[in-house]
């Protein structure tokens, strides 16, 4: 498939797990991919996998919590590949487990910094060039706690709910200029992050429900989110800009229902109301 031919995709957190699968799928669809993360050898492995399949990619080591580093990363991307047509914010941290009064304050805030501030930084860096060209798409990954309480994952949940609202604010600001933002929840995927939830003492104590979900067979393939995000990059779900799409969605059904969802203001972060679809 070459739906994304001649486009440039930037994928953060692309060194492993969901991010690697997203980067691979973008390349399979024809995009040239910039793979970003803090760990050089992991993103270099992703680039090697893309190249082994005949794709084009570069590895860019970046700490998304440092805006100057993000600016430098995007300057390099523009210089070597051209401006980004697609930005996927997949980076994430979930290290603080437990009730608020037992969480280490530094660890709790670090989750928020990486998840929320990192997403703000990359969006800020990518948007000017997209707006100047009058086109571009941004996907911000959300997850557990976005639309519901997550008592023992409060830092992660707070950051993800904030990313959902940031996505809505960004989209409302840019859509008139041809730039669209989307939120994507990949679902429960077996990753290094979930491994820590399963096997750390804090995870076993405060998040036992994660193990139960896996025991019940809930384990979403990362390819589900990757294929959905490729569809978003190709414009298939532009009607749902500013809203939440999910890795578990049947994409054909979602396409049939998207006009109705948009009209009903569904898949959005709103106060509960009669007849309103909740996240």
TrEMBL record:
Assigned keywords, A-Z: Oxidoreductase
GO molecular function, one term: oxidoreductase activity
Gene3D superfamilies on file: NAD(P)-binding Rossmann-like Domain
Family: Belongs to the short-chain dehydrogenases/reductases (SDR) family.
CDD domains recorded: SDR_c
Protein's UniProt name: SDR family NAD(P)-dependent oxidoreductase
Pfam families noted in UniProt: adh_short (PF00106)
InterPro entries membership: NAD(P)-bd_dom_sf, SDR_fam
């Amino acid at each position: 498939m070459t739906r994304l031919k001649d486009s440039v995709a930037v994928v953060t957190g692309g060194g492993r797990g969901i991010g690697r699968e997203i980067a691979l799928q973008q390349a399979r669809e024809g995009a040239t991919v910039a793979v970003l993360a803090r760990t050089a050898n992991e993103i270099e492995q992703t680039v090697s996998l893309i190249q082994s399949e005949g794709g084009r990619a570069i590895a860019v080591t970046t700490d998304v919590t440092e805006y100057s580093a993000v600016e430098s990363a995007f300057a390099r991307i523009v210089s070597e590949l051209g401006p980004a047509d697609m930005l996927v914010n997949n980076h994430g941290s979930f290290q603080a487990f437990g009730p608020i009064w037992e969480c280490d304050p530094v660890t709790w805030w670090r989750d928020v910094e990486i998840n929320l501030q990192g997403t703000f930084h990359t969006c800020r860096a990518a948007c000017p060039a997209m707006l100047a060209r009058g086109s571009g798409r941004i996907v911000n990954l959300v997850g557990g706690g976005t639309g519901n309480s997550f008592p023992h994952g409060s830092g992660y949940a707070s950051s993800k709910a904030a990313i959902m609202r940031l996505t809505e604010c960004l989209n409302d600001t840019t859509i008139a200029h041809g730039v669209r933002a989307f939120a994507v929840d990949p679902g429960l995927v077996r990753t290094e992050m979930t491994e820590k939830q399963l096997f750390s003492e804090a995870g076993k104590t405060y998040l036992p429900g994660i193990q139960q979900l896996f025991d019940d067979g809930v384990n979403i393939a990362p390819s589900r989110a990757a294929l959905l995000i490729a569809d978003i990059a190709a414009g298939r779900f532009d009607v749902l800009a500013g809203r939440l799409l999910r890795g578990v969605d049947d994409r054909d059904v979602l396409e049939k229902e998207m006009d109705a969802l948009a009209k009903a203001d569904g898949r959005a972060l709103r106060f509960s109301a009669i007849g309103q679809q909740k996240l």
